[in-house]
Specification:
It is built from five helices and ten strands; from the N terminus they run ααβββββαββββαβα. By secondary structure, the protein is α+β, with helices and mostly antiparallel strands. The longest helix has 70 residues. It is elongated.
Length: 298
């Protein structure tokens, strides 16, 4: 009996040892597989993180290209082709427009006459300098002797006073070198506004710093009327004549025509006269002796 029990204990011990050995082997085997699985998982995780990082870096330039132009000053970077332009990026710097002066200076070196006149008025010189009295023909010079020459004429624009009987108005300058200083003080025809029809003597006036003689005249027909003022001054050995004239037509005949404000028009013409000056002129006769003397010296 005793021998049998020992044999059974030994067998049981062997079986237990065998079972523990198998369990240890299995545990050891599963442990390596788990390790491999963990290593593989970490490997894939590392690859995934690396791919994610590369993807994130590749997206950064795109974000910069979108937001970059907004942060760049518009004045230094040109707008993309086809992109809508803005006032800040494309509008040039505004330049202050220079206004042209309202008045223009006229100067004639031959006669020495200069004056200012409104830019909107018309300037006539040379052969066109002889004005007309409200469609009554050329304006007549008021010198006591012939020899007058028209220098320049400034005319108000046609239609300056619509709805009125305004026909024309002008400022005219003439010069006559054939008159003496005493003759320059007189006029060929003078004012005849006296009630008895007698002529009115010329008056002495001072325009600016220049002493002048002045007279006026009025003429009319069935259709037109002309009012004229004359001024004479003697300078540079010549007689200078300034004419201010207004012509009207149609009042009382043309429907709706109203009389123009004569004082307003003459005020404009008188402003031109106030700027008139006569600069010294070198006469050709004075230069001849010097020329002959130089020839003789040779």
């Amino acid at each position: 009996m005793t021998t049998i029990w020992k044999s059974d204990d030994k067998k049981s011990t062997n079986q237990a040892t065998s079972t523990n050995s198998i369990s240890g082997t299995m545990l050891s085997s599963w442990s390596r597989q788990q390790k491999l699985a963990i290593i593989v998982c970490f490997t894939f995780l590392g690859l995934f993180l690396a791919m994610s990082a590369c993807s994130t870096k590749s997206q950064k330039p795109a974000l910069t290209s979108v937001t970059g132009p907004a942060a760049t000053p518009a004045t230094t970077v040109a707008a993309p082709v086809g992109a809508p332009t803005t006032a800040v990026a494309t509008a040039p710097a505004k330049r202050t427009a220079k206004k042209r002066p309202a008045n223009v200076t006229y100067s004639d070196p031959d006669s020495g006459v200069s004056f200012l006149y409104p830019r909107k008025f018309a300037l006539l010189t040379g052969n066109d300098a002889s004005p007309q009295f409200a469609r009554l023909g050329d304006a007549v010079m008021n010198f006591v002797q012939p020899g007058g020459v028209a220098v320049a004429t400034v005319q108000l624009p046609d239609g300056s006073y619509p709805g009125t009987d305004f026909a024309s108005a002008f400022f005219n300058v003439n010069v006559n070198r054939n008159l003496s200083e005493q003759e320059c003080e007189h006029f060929a025809f003078v004012d005849s506004h006296n009630v008895d029809g007698a002529a009115v003597d010329a008056e002495k006036v001072t325009i600016g710093s220049t002493d002048m003689e002045t007279t006026s005249n009025f003429s009319a027909s069935a259709m037109t009327q002309t009012e004229t003022q004359y001024y004479h001054s003697y300078e540079n050995g010549a007689c200078y004549e300034y004419i201010l004239s207004l012509g009207t037509a149609g009042y009382g005949i043309k429907d709706g025509a109203k009389p123009v404000n004569r004082d307003e028009i003459f005020a404009k013409l008188e402003k031109i006269l106030a700027t008139a000056k006569v600069n010294p002129v070198v006469q050709e006769q004075a230069a001849e002796p010097a020329a002959s003397g130089s020839v003789g010296g040779k």
